[in-house]
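Final report, closing paragraph on structural work. Over the funding period we assembled a curated collection of sequence-structure pairs, and we close with a single example.
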Amino acid sequence: RSFAPEDIKEDDLDILRNTIQLTGSTYLRTKLSHIVWSLTRDNSYGKIAVAGYVDEFHKQFNPEHWVDCYDQIRSAYHISSMMGNRSDSFKQTRAIINEKLMQMNGSDTSFLSLKLLGLIVKDAPKEDLPKYDSIISILADKNLDPSNNNANLADTTFSVLEKLYGRLKKDAELKEFKGKYANYYEIQAKSL
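Its predicted structure, as stored:
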C-alpha cells in the first residue's frame, strides 16, 4: 500500500511543526500547515494555511489563467469553512472572494467568476445573493448565447445559475434560463 496521512505519527507531526517554524518558504509553510491542520484540526495551523493560500491567490490572480489561483482560494475556503463560518479566517476568505467577484463583475471570459460563485453560493449570506444574481445574469447572457462555442462554459454557467436561483426562489427566471439553455444546445446541434 502507498503512504497515507494516517501513517504520520506524533513524532512526525513534531518534525512538521518545527519545519513550519523554521522554513523561509511560504509555499512549504502553507502546505505543511495544511497537513498538520488536516491531521490535528489545530486552528493555529489552519490560520497559517489559509493566510498562505489567500496570499498565493492574490499573487496568481488572473481571470483568464484561473486554475492555479482558484485552487489556492478553494483550499483557503475549505479550511476556513471547517474552522467555522464565524471565524476570522472564514470571514476574510469570503470577503476576498466577494472583492474579486465585484472587481470582475462578470467581465471575465473564462471560468473564474463561475467557479468562485459555485464555491460560495450554497452558504452565502442572503444579503450577498443579489450581488451574485447581478453577476450571474451578466455571465448567463454571454455564456448561454449561441455564439459561445464553449459548451463547458454554458454548462457551468447554468449549473451555478440553477443553484443561485434555487436559493433566491426565482422559479420564473430559472424557467426562462432553462429555455435559453435548451435553445443554446439546439442551435449548437444544428451547427454540427
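The CA atoms of residues 34 and 49 lie 5 Å apart. The mean pLDDT is 95. We thank the funder for supporting this effort.
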